[in-house]
Amino acid sequence: MKLQPVRTIHSLVSRCISHLSRQCYDVIVVGGGHAGTEAAAAAARMGAETLLVTQKIHTIGALSCNPSLGGVGKGHLVREVDALDGLCGRAGDWAGINFSILNRSKGPAVWGPRAQLDRQRYREFIQGELRSISRLTVLEGSVEDLLVAEPSPDEPGSHRVTGISLENVLNPITASSVVLTTGTFLSGSIFVGQTTSPGGRIGDAPSSAGLSHTLKERLGLRVGRLRTGTPPRIVKESVDFALAELHPPDRRPTPFSFMNTHTRCKVEEQVPCYLTYTTPGVERVVQESLHLNCHIQQDTKGPRYCPSIESRVLRFPGRSHQVWLEPEGVTSDLLYPQGLSMTMPPEMQLRLIREIPALHRAEIHSPGYGVQYDYVCPTQLSSALQVKTTQGLFLAGQINGTTGYEEAAAQGLWAGVNAACRALSTPPVSLSRTESYIGVLIDDLVCRGVTEPYRMFTSRAEFRTALRPDNADLRLTPKGYELGCVSPSRYQEAMRVQRSLQDAMAALQALTLSTARCREKLPDVRVSESKNAALTGMELLQYKELSFETLASVFPERLSSYLEFSQRLKIEAVYKPHCDINKKEIERIQKEENMFLPQDIDYFSLPASLSQEAREILDRVRPTTLGAATRLEGITPAAVVSLYNYVQFAE
Ligand code: FAD
Q1: Which residue has the CA at smallest separation from atom 4 of ligand 1?
Q2: CA 68 to ligand 1 centroid distance, Å
Q3: Number of H helices, E strands in the chain
Q4: 283 or 588: which carries more pLDDT confidence?
Q5: Is 206 in the pocket of ligand 1 (CB under 6 A)?
Q6: Of 506, 507, 533, 509, the residue nearest 519 (C-alpha)
């Protein structure tokens, strides 16, 4: 399939509200980060007239921190967003300059597709895509507040969002659904050394105080504070690469998108990364600068999944820590030192990095900094990412307490789909933990909440062998097409792949060989003595040493037409026994998952077998399904049985 180039239609972008052709939209998305762009694109693909409002058009698609996409768990999310026709996978294929599959030593279910990105190219691609989507208008502006209708007597306690107001603009803009994706900008404060200033990201003002006030005071949402940070950017030519370890990318780049067979960057154009380590001198500088570092003084632990160098040396003194030197782009003069996020004063930052041998004469282009921001406790959301007590208000991305572009993109897409469903008067939709990592992510957020920035890991998914990066298209594209967020061309491609895989598996199943024949035809495969008299092609492929290509070379008339799917067929065969075992368990859970819990249940009037603690938790969280209730902390199996019986009886 041809790699899609950056699109260049400019007609729908407006820097001025007076250019808008309407004042009323189906969906308004606030924020043009990773969540906002996917939300806006998905809503428009669903057929909703959509407006994306963001502070600065040129920062749409900006990578605030590390220029990379994917990784273990995160790569699964990128593949799933792509399977639902989202943008980030194709953008990654266009902007990637160093591709690798992480975790290759483990099974393919937990491989992590990852790419180092060219910042400029990534932004260009996302902006080009948005410009090409019909029914989507992009407006530069800062949203000052939400328009909120007070609860009606019919629906006491439930507000309704009806639109937005913009800073310095008199007329509001109305919509059926509003998706807030303001990232680290809600009451954002930036920290460098002893200096604190308002900001959502360096160079960008925070969101207006009105927005925070409305969320907390008018809508009564529980809001918490989280922090994160970013490293200084280093001038590439000041680095002594001879003192670092070269880490070349994969020899053959693997695209993220199911629609691409290759990446824009050719094998020989890939840019390498380097690995280096901290020294005792780094620890000394951290200790000496502690009294000058108010970000770390307030919380020495910092975020667990992207900790600062200060937290790392304070928690693990005496250790040497990895620092990856990663390119920021093909033509960029800068390097991103992953692992050196810091908030000490700039002069101390320079001292610190020069304690690392490869950086002994390094120059800093821009210092590292920390950011602290408000997030909305996500247990207040439904599995459609809509605020339970406020109709029409959807939240996605870092505002829900997550960290990372991939987590933001996944939520954004799903919030966009649901915002469109509401606007188009179709019922909300959810994804379950048994069918996708997006389902796992959303379920974790809305059922368990967060106490620190949440990032995806493969260990969070119970059915890892079924939710693989290689089969996201088969799991999600048909569902996305049915919903309306997947284009016909992608759907047709997914169906072609599905049919071919089914035919190939039937051919493999029909190919049976006695053990003696296996030894004769496939001498390198160590078929065990104890095996049944005959083995099918599927069973043979479960042998590590046998590839589909080899099998097809022995039986070309039966298998060679499926060579395009060699890797997928090998993975299908290896995981077939696990998936067969999981199938029953998944069916049981899906039944439970789908049992709808009415939102008006009076948990305090339920039978006495339910504990007071369980009632309070259920009343506060109001899970939408029995499956969601099962996973709430404090809800025992006995409580689930009581609830199940009650709902069955009530129905
Ligand atoms: P963002 O990408 O932040 O986008 C928010 C958008 O909303 C921006 O375009 C902003 O202009 C717009 N906006 C905000 N308020 C308004 C308003 N009122 N009106 C209109 N537009 C508005 N992730 C990691 O995985 N690892 C890391 O180490 C890491 N470190 C980070 C360090 C820093 C300093 C920052 C800022 C982020 C870091 N991240 C890190 C997080 C990563 O950047 C985010 O998770 C991701 O960008 C979140 O996407 P988002 O769409 O939710 O928000």
Answers
A1: 33
A2: 14
A3: 21, 24
A4: 283
A5: no
A6: 533
Atom of ligand 1 nearest to the CA of 144: 18
| Nearest atom within ligand 1 for CA of residue 141 | 20
- Residue 516 burial by Cβ neighbours in a 10 Å radius (0-12, 13-18, 19+): exposed
Burial (0-12, 13-18, 19+ Cβ within 10 Å), 18:
exposed
Residue 6's CB is within 10 A of a number of other CB atoms, namely: 18
Establish whether residue 263 lines the binding site of ligand 1, counting it when its CB lies within 6 angstroms of any ligand atom: no
Q: Probe ligand 1: pick from 395, 398, 406, max atoms within 8 Å of CB?
A: 398
**Which 8-state DSSP code applies to residue 4?**
P
Q: Is the pLDDT of residue 9 over 60?
A: no
Residues 6+ apart with CB under 8 A from 564: 500
* Mean pLDDT along residues 112-127: 96
| pLDDT 10s digits, 429-470 | 999 888 999 999 999 999 889 988 999 999 999 888 999 999
In degrees, rounded to 5, the angle at the alpha carbon of residue 248 between the alpha carbons of residues 245 and 254 is 150
| Mean pLDDT across 596-617 | 84
CA atoms within 13 Å, Cβ hemisphere of 242: 1
Ligand 1 centroid–CA 395 distance in Å is 13
List Cβ neighbours of 379 (8 Å cut-off, separation of 6 or more): 445, 446, 447, 448, 449, 620, 621
Strand partners, 364: 234
Whole-angstrom distance, CA of residue 643 vs CA of residue 531 = 48
129 Cα: distance to centroid of ligand 1 (angstroms): 20
DSSP H or E stretch at residue 288: helix 280-289
- pLDDT for the residue numbered 614: 86
Q: Choose which residue among 88, 181, 214, 341 to substitute to test ligand 1 binding: the one with the highest number of ligand atoms within 8 A of its C-beta.
A: 181
- The radius of gyration of the chain's CA atoms, rounded to the nearest angstrom, is 26
Residues 524-536: tens digit of each pLDDT: 888 876 656 789 9
Q: Which two tokens stand for residue 534?
A: 């005959």
Question: What is the Å distance from ligand 1's center to 187 Cα?
Answer: 13
Among protein residues, the one whose CA lies closest to atom 24 of ligand 1:
404
Please identify, by atom number, the ligand 1 atom nearest to the C-alpha of residue 201.
Answer: 36
- Please report which confidence band the pLDDT of residue 627 belongs to, taking 50, 70 and 90 as the band edges: confident
CB of 182 closer than 6 A to ligand 1? yes
For residues 143 and 207, the answer to whether their CB atoms sit within 8 Å is yes
The pTM for the full model equals 0.90
The confidence score (pLDDT) of residue 632 equals: 79
Strand stretches in 428-573, DSSP E: 512-514, 534-536
Best substitution site from 34, 58, 60, 342 to test ligand 1's pocket, by max atoms within 8 Å of Cβ?
Answer: 34
Give the Å distance between the CA of 560 and the centre of ligand 1: 47
Q: Is the pLDDT of residue 300 over 80?
A: no
d(CA 456, CA 437): 8
- Mean pLDDT for the stretch of residues 263-285: 93
Task: Say how many Å lie between the CA of residue 217 and the centre of ligand 1.
Answer: 24
What is the C-alpha separation between 493 and 498, in angstroms, rounded?
9
Q: In this model, does residue 7 exceed pLDDT 50?
A: no
Q: Among the atoms of ligand 1, which is closest to the Cα of residue 370?
A: 34
**Is 549 strand, coil or helix?**
helix
Q: Classify the complex by whether its ipTM is higher than 0.90, answering yes or no.
A: yes
Using pLDDT thresholds of 50, 70 and 90, give the confidence band for residue 626.
confident
Name the token pair of 614: 């369980």
Rounded to whole angstroms, the Cα distance separating 266 from 282 reads 37
